[in-house]
Specification:
- The protein is mostly beta strands.
- About 5% of the residues lie in helices and about 45% in strands.
- The chain has 6 domains: about 120 residues, Sandwich (Immunoglobulin-like); about 90 residues, Sandwich (Immunoglobulin-like), CATH 2.60.40; about 80 residues, Immunoglobulin-like, CATH 2.60.40; about 100 residues, Immunoglobulin-like; about 90 residues, Immunoglobulin-like (Sandwich); about 90 residues, Immunoglobulin-like, CATH 2.60.40.
- Strands 30, 31, 34, 35, 36 and 37 form a 6-stranded antiparallel sheet that branches. Strands 40, 41, 44, 45, 46 and 47 form a 6-stranded antiparallel sheet that branches.
């Protein structure tokens, strides 16, 4: 049962030589009995093996020698055998046994036959190797332009576990597992393979495969051709939207294996429009096309999707929704509050054409918005849809938020700065009282406490002088619940509802303005102030910064001035600068002269636009 080692064989050879020598010298007429050794087996394959025999003694003369073998232990020459027929050049001989079964346990022994019978060597045991699996390929079914179903049947595992099986497929003959394939489990038996991602009107080659430790076996190749598939088309984003027109289109990225005989854009006011409705012809063939949508109705929701047609039918791109632009609505808010709330302006009480307004946008024509200040303890007002009393005009008898053109009562509000919103489709409104301030990690109160601003009726703006820290940011907040707040994504002075935080790059005292007086066009600025000129220490090249005097409510600086001139400048730049008369500074005004050198205190009021120059 064991395979003899090289040392054992050498030992036997030495012993045999001694014995033969002894016989020659002392007992020349004596013959030892025949003895055979099965030394080892070599080159085991799935159907063959080589067994090495060794005749230790020939006895009275060996007439036959070889190897006997079988699938049961202790085989004899009555079982299968292979007789050695080669030239005898030594005691050893090699026998190649063929025609074996794969993955089978065999037993083998060397033998020698002489006048006294047959003697056997030790038994060796070996296992033939497995072979690749045997399997069949299933005829494809359910063939479409993009998919099919097939599979196979592993009818013989080849004597080893099948670790993978599936279907190889492609457009070249004899597809293999290194190409495109499915993975459909393991083991013997029937399996089903789903073929996806196929192209229309294309010939495919498929064959099943199964893998074991011996390698991969394949089933027969089956050839089939897919029918023409539906095209693939994408819808282009809608651009150039106006009140009555827009531009879209599409791109045919795949012809389905057929000829694109028509393409274009289907459109309408319901989702997923088809060519049975309104459509625009975009030509034939693959590639991109542009479609101009004309004669649309303003402020209306439309749907568009590209289409492409071949012999298989018509395919569509994604549904894209857009809305045409609207006329801008402007409503007036006349009332008894106007004169007291807007002093110094041309606005007047109960005059629709001389009242604050709410305005819609071109993209949302039924949504009006604006801010209004009401200075009186009690204020009465209403909505006028025209700049006169020709109506319709709206009040709210029960403060329900529903607009009523026949309301007997005006809308009553307490003192405050209100955000007014109107939905002219549902005929509802809201009037939210706001308290404006700045909040953020750049402000004194951080994100936890708002620093309130002051409303200045003469300018219709909010103002705040505040120390802001570098590296932080802030926003404008109108309600403590954050339902009304503004930021600026580009930090460019233009505000957007809920937009990004406004960063602060330089730590300083700032004068911050918030302007909500223009409906849907809200702005801000944040300026740190300094003086610059040939009379100042920095000359015309460097600002001397000012700080905020909270008692005097001015920006202030004390410095030595020489004979020359200077100006007030914001944020170390020339975009915003003031000069001219100290009692009424003007943007970009003349330089302010200093006739006598000395130590001076300069002040600047950003709200009154006045300044003082005091020699100390």
């Amino acid at each position: 049962m064991k395979r003899l080692s090289l040392y054992q064989i050498l030992g036997i050879l030495v012993t045999t030589a001694i014995l033969f020598g002894a016989c020659t010298k002392e007992n020349a007429g004596v013959k030892l009995p025949a003895r055979v050794i099965t030394s080892q087996f070599l080159n085991v394959k799935s159907d063959s093996v080589t067994v090495v025999g060794f005749v230790v003694a020939q006895g009275e003369g060996v007439t036959e020698k070889g190897v006997c073998y079988g699938t049961t232990a202790a085989p004899t020459i009555a079982n299968s055998k292979v007789i050695f027929s080669g030239p005898t050049t030594g005691a050893t001989y090699n026998i190649k046994i063929g025609g074996l079964l794969y993955a089978t346990t065999y037993y083998a022994r060397a033998y020698a036959t002489g006048p006294d019978g047959t003697v056997y060597g030790e038994q060796v045991t070996f296992n033939t190797l497995p072979v690749v699996p045997t399997l069949s390929t299933t005829t494809p079914t359910g063939v479409t332009g993009s998919a099919a179903s097939s599979g196979g049947n592993v009818t013989n595992t080849g004597g080893a576990a099948v670790t993978a099986r599936g279907l190889c497929f492609g457009t070249a003959t004899n597809p293999v597992v290194t190409g495109t394939k499915t993975a459909d489990g393991n083991g013997a038996g029937v399996f089903v393979s789903a073929l996806t991602g196929l192209k229309g009107n294309t010939t495919y080659y498929i064959r099943s495969y199964a893998t074991n430790s011996a390698g991969t076996g394949y089933g027969p190749v089956i050839i089939f051709t897919t029918p023409v598939d539906l095209p693939v088309v994408t819808t282009t984003a809608v651009t150039a939207v106006t009140k009555t027109s827009a531009v879209s289109g599409g791109a045919v990225t795949y012809d389905g294996g057929g000829t694109i005989t028509a393409r274009g854009l289907a459109w309408g006011t319901t989702a997923n429009p088809t060519t049975a409705g309104s459509k625009i012809d975009g030509g034939t063939g693959t590639g991109a096309f542009v479609s101009n949508l004309p004669v649309l109705i303003k402020y209306t929701t439309y749907h568009v999707r590209a289409y492409a047609t071949n012999s298989a039918g018509t395919a569509y791109g994604a549904d894209v929704e857009f809305k045409t632009l609207a006329d801008i609505l402007t409503w007036n808010l006349p009332g008894d509050y106007v004169g007291d709330s807007y002093p110094g302006s041309t606005l007047a009480n109960w005059s629709p054409d001389k009242s604050p307004q709410v305005i819609s946008t071109i993209s949302a024509g039924d949504r009006l918005e604006g801010y209004v200040y009401m200075a009186n303890t009690s204020n009465n007002w209403k909505f006028a849809s025209q700049a006169n009393w020709n109506g319709p005009n709206y009040g709210d008898d029960n403060s329900s938020g529903a607009l009523n053109p026949n309301a007997a009562n005006n809308i009553a509000s307490a003192k405050g700065y209100y955000k007014i919103n109107v939905n002219s489709t549902t005929m509802t409104y809201t009037a939210i009282a706001t308290t404006w301030g700045v909040i953020g990690d750049a402000t004194p109160g951080g994100w936890g406490s708002q620093t309130n601003m002051e409303y200045i009726p003469a300018t219709q703006k909010f103002f705040l002088a505040v120390h802001l820290t570098a590296g932080g940011s802030f926003k404008f907040r109108g309600t403590s619940d954050w339902s009304v707040n503004y930021g600026s994504d580009a930090a460019n002075g233009i505000l957007g509802a809920g937009a990004g935080n406004i960063p602060v790059d330089t730590e300083s005292d700032y004068g911050v303005w918030l302007d909500l007086s223009h409906p849907n066009a809200y702005t801000y600025n944040s300026y740190r102030w300094g003086v610059i000129g040939d009379a100042t220490p920095g000359g015309w090249g460097t600002d001397t910064n000012m700080t905020w005097d909270n008692v005097a409510k001015v920006f202030k600086v004390t410095l030595n001035l020489t004979v020359g001139s200077f100006k007030f400048r914001a944020n170390d730049g020339w975009d915003v600068n003031y000069g001219g008369s100290l009692s009424g500074l003007t943007p970009g005004g003349d330089n302010i002269a200093i006739a006598t050198a000395g130590n001076y205190t300069l002040t600047y009021s950003p709200t009154a636009l006045t300044a003082t120059v005091t020699k100390n």
